[in-house]
Amino acid sequence: MQTILSRGIEALERDRLQEAVTLLRMAIELAPDSPEAFNALGEAATRSMLVPEAIRSFKRAAELDSGSFSAYARLAGLYARSGRRTEARRSLSRAIKLSSNASQRRTIERLVAENSIFANFANNAGLTNHAPGGAPPRRRTRAVRKDS
Fold first, then answer.
1. How many degrees, rounded to 5, is the angle at CA 70 between CA 61 and CA 76?
2. Cβ neighbours of residue 105 closer than 8 Å, sequence gap 6 or more
């Protein structure tokens, strides 16, 4: 299974999406309890515009690994683009709780910025203009030089 999973991930990284989807489906058949395989298939399916399969894959990855920030963040984006507000907000809320570093906070900020479905939710969760739990970004000011 690991060899097939590795080949599927490699195909995904090389943007050979059809091959990646095929290999990752095979990996899941061999190891139906692998959150890594479901996350990778979710990514390949997303990039292949197979949204229902992507959602199923990320949901299963989240079921298998309830601490998977990436699965919840990807679900939030997919649900938002599909107009599924309740699921989108629930997934975003879980991703926020799981976020533990600056990169994950930037992912959340990008999700909020890209999806108007999160506008009121972001305001209520304190996400407007800054990362969750963090301070607002500092404004950069430019010194003005006066000529004497």
1. 90
2. 99, 131, 132, 133, 134
In degrees and rounded to multiples of 5, residue 133 shows phi and psi of 75, 0
C-alpha to C-alpha distances, 111 to 76, 91, 118, nearest whole angstrom? 8, 11, 8
Residue 84 lies in a domain: yes
Which range marks the domain in which residue 40 is found?
A: 2-124
In a domain, 137, yes or no: no
**What is the per-residue pLDDT across 76-122, written as a single tens digit (0 to 9) for each?**
999 999 999 999 999 999 999 999 999 999 999 999 999 888 877 76
Q: What is the CATH number of the domain that holds 78?
A: 1.25.40.10
Q: How many domains does the chain have?
A: 1
The span from the CA of 29 to the CA of 132, in Å, is 38
**Within a domain: 45:** yes
Give the Cα-Cα-Cα angle 65, 66, 71 (nearest 5 degrees): 75
Query: Which of 94, 126, 92 shows the shortest CA–CA distance to 111?
Result: 92
